[in-house]
Write a structure and sequence with these properties.
336 residues; alpha+beta; Deoxyribonuclease I, Chain A; six-stranded mixed β-sheet; 25% strand
């Protein structure tokens, strides 16, 4: 879809949205230089009203909202999306009409049962920048030592592998149950953290497909620091990058930290650019609506992002020269 086809008010909103993206310090895509990974819970992402004007009925998400969603998604090389519904017509519309043929999609089956909320877990990726590695699978917890089945996740976590150049990485995304109380979320968070550490981490260390494992998604964690949910999440060694620790991920007046990106520090071969952030679009789009109304059109969550460096030339040259690549200027001893 061409920007000249957008109504004037939509273009004005996109101008404001791009300012918010710039304020988040999200880097641009640089060929052979960086990798931009995101995660975003797009509220109830199902059917779309295929008109620019408001729908007096349901769904409230229309072409105007899709233009804003596309503007954010295209900032990333690959983004994990939670809360995609069984009806993927809106998701297909996003790719076919707003993103284009250069974008790819990998999605899980529908999570069955009343607590699965008919949701899918999804990855959208820029085919010009990354390609699937071939790995894809759902996380199913093994039985007990006695062979008895264990309680599975309400919405089965999903892991997919990708490749950019010679770099390979695996993304594990999840949408942890919300439940009646925060205490009801601890079990799933702990189970995922333990499985990730005991199974996927060991496979990665043995050269398995899960190397460079990054965990991301909506974990319904109210707070960070000493919060029991956050402590359960990091209990087996997962580390949230420092720039994300104090960034709220919802529009609510009281800060919420539901969404996370983390990995096992020291086990990641990818070079962290030490840049990460959140795109807070509240107030930039749908200015005529209150935040709750906006959330049914765009989302009630903000996308999180992390940049990785895929250019290893400095590291490789430093190795050849016998200097530390972490120095401020590792090549200062080389004369002009």
């Amino acid at each position: 879809m061409n920007y000249t086809d957008y109504p004037r008010g939509v273009v004005e909103d996109i101008v404001r949205l791009r300012r918010r993206i710039e304020q988040s310090h999200l880097p641009g895509k640089r060929v052979d230089r960086n990798l931009l990974i995101g995660t975003w819970n797009i509220r109830g992402f199902g059917q779309v009203y295929r008109q620019w004007e408001e729908n007096p009925g349901s769904p409230k998400r229309n072409l105007r909202a899709m233009a804003y969603i596309a503007e954010i998604v295209k900032c990333f090389d690959v983004i994990a999306v939670q809360e995609v519904k069984w009806d993927t017509s809106g998701l297909r519309l996003l790719l076919e009409e707003f993103l284009g043929s250069q974008w790819g999609l990998i999605l899980s089956d529908v999570c069955a049962g009343p607590r699965g909320n008919s949701e899918r877990l999804t990855f959208i990726y820029d085919k010009r920048r990354v390609q699937p590695s071939g790995l894809a699978g759902e996380i199913v917890l093994p039985p007990t030592a006695a062979g008895d089945p264990v309680q599975q996740f309400d919405r089965t976590p999903y892991v997919v592998g990708f490749q950019v150049g010679r770099e390979r990485f695996a993304l594990l995304t999840a949408h942890i149950r919300y439940g009646d109380t925060p205490e009801g979320r601890v079990g799933e968070i702990q189970a995922l953290a333990q499985y990730t550490a005991a199974v996927l981490r060991d496979r990665a260390k043995s050269g398995g497909e899960e190397r460079n494992l990054i965990v991301l998604g909506d974990f319904n964690i109210d707070d960070r620091g000493d919060n029991p949910l956050f402590q359960a999440f990091i209990s087996t060694g997962l580390v949230v990058p420092a720039p994300l620790l104090n960034l709220k991920t919802t529009y609510a007046t009281k800060p919420k930290f539901y969404d996370q990106i983390a990995w096992f520090m020291g086990d990641l071969d990818l070079l962290s650019g030490e840049k990460a952030g959140v795109i807070n679009f509240a107030g930039a789009v749908y200015q005529e609506l209150v935040p709750l109304q906006m959330s049914y059109r765009v989302s009630d969550h903000f996308p999180l992002w992390v940049e990785f460096v895929i250019d290893r030339s400095t590291e490789q040259m430093a190795h050849t020269l016998g200097v530390d690549p972490a120095m401020p200027d590792p090549f200062s001893l080389i004369p002009d």
